[in-house]
Amino acid sequence: MTNKELAELMFPNITKTIEDLEKEYPERGENVTVTRFAPSPTGFMHIGNFLSVVIDYVIAKRNNGVFFLRNEDTDQAREVEGAVEYIMHVLDHYKFNPDEYEIKGGVTKGNYGPYIQSERKDIYKVFIKYLISEGKAYPCFMTAEEMAEIRDNQAKAKVRIGIYGKFAKSRNLTPDEAWERIQAGEQYTVRLKSEGNFNHTFIFNDLANGEMKLHENDNDTVIYKSSTELPTYHFAHLVDDHLMRTTHVIRGQEWMASVPVHYELFKTFGYKMPKYVHTPLILKKDGDQIRKISKRKDPEARMTFYEENGYPIYSVIESIMTIANSNYEAWRDGHPDAEFTEFDFSAKKMSPSGALYDLDKLDNISKNYISRLTKDQVFDFLDEWSKEYDKEFNEIINKDVDYTKAILNIEREQKKPRKDYAKWSDVKPAIWYMFDELYNPEEFAWGKINNMDEIKSIVTNYVENYYNPDDDKETWFNRIKELTESMEGYTSNMKEYKENPDAFKGNVADVSTCIRVALTSRDQTPDLYEIIRLLGKDRIVERINNLK
Hints:
This protein is an alpha/beta fold. It folds into four domains: 3-13 and 121-279, HUPs (Rossmann fold); 31-115 and 280-372, Rossmann fold (3-Layer(aba) Sandwich), CATH 3.40.50; 374-433, no CATH class; 452-545, Arc Repressor Mutant, subunit A, CATH 1.10.10.350. It contains 22 helices and 17 strands. The strands form seven sheets. The protein has a four-stranded antiparallel sheet. Strand 1, helix 3 and strand 2 (66-69) form a beta-alpha-beta unit. Helix 1 packs antiparallel against helix 5, helix 18 (452-466) crosses helix 21 and helix 21 (508-520) packs across helix 22. The protein starts with a helix and ends with a helix.
């Protein structure tokens, strides 16, 4: 029996050839940039995935290219329920809409699908059949126990771990022997018959890491599993990226170890490899140490963290762009209103030693962004977020939308707007005291004036003698000064107070703080004048009367 006959017996229903597939999936055109996000649904999307998505998207859009989504679901035993749907949700949430994609059992957009690997079985078999027919791959019948024993023996002998050379027990089976065992019902995999020599090296150029000298692959890598009729990641990567005409592969640094296998696979078929960008590890500062961000230990490693906490889309993307390229922040300073896709991304400007992701920086980006929004924009974003994550607060802010917007607008329309919010979950803790439904303080942050009789005297005097809802801000503050001067032992002259503080019970700032705390329970709030104006006399009196 020849190898061609064995291949025909193993895959009798595969009648297409590689040449047929090349015609079905033609070149996309000269110099067309094609990137893909190709997640495995074996877990929920994390910040490393998101970094790859952002770079995929920027490269494609910057070059008027194609950005497509491929569902790499070949490891079906480890697939997590809901992972695919969440991937689609994240792409939709951040407006990274793929030009080509497929939803299982639903919509397909694009001519290079299927875009779900489990639906491409027959395509992979065409390539596997070819390799077997050419004697470049073979059925392997080693059991898990046999391979574990080989690894143990290799470890004891302190030699490289793997199935190569004398350890590749099925490599030299004749086609007749292989077919006899298949006919007997033995489970098998198909392995690449490697022609590599580990002692030889090849040059690999990574766009982020530069030129590298790597050892050739000599492992007879598993490329297909008969139990699932699906290829391994390595082989599917070759077939899909070739036929889908991917020009750039952006993936995590952890995949660098796979490059020798992929290099050999592309070389075996005589195909040009895509350009690779192996993104740096995402690091975080943990006390005095800097370590790799952890999906288990660090909530910010999961993409759910940002949505649940209500970080704006803009802020998250901007924070990722700052670690994607070292010169992004300087570019943003010079182009404050430009779309991030207008930035001329360069993989060479990625940090090969790792990218430090700092939540403080994200908060800073986000506060600056939110401070520039109008009250209407802030309300709309807050409304959308709270519908999902704080329904009670959503009902409260919608009872009187104009009132809520007025609160959100305090110290907003000015040269230096306040920067109280980094995320939408910050809003409620910052303004809760403006809503009667939420105002039930357990403690008050009284300042220098902390005697309740004195406090009640000040706030009652203010309401009865100095409060006027029609005052502008300057008039209002002059009345606070008058109130201060009317009280024995207080002064509105700050210079005088600073020169001899022991001569006074307090000053105009202490009186303002007393009113502020009496109405809000807090000693730090936005503009007191605006708070008083919005609360109105009836609510002010009610809160004063409830002081204990």
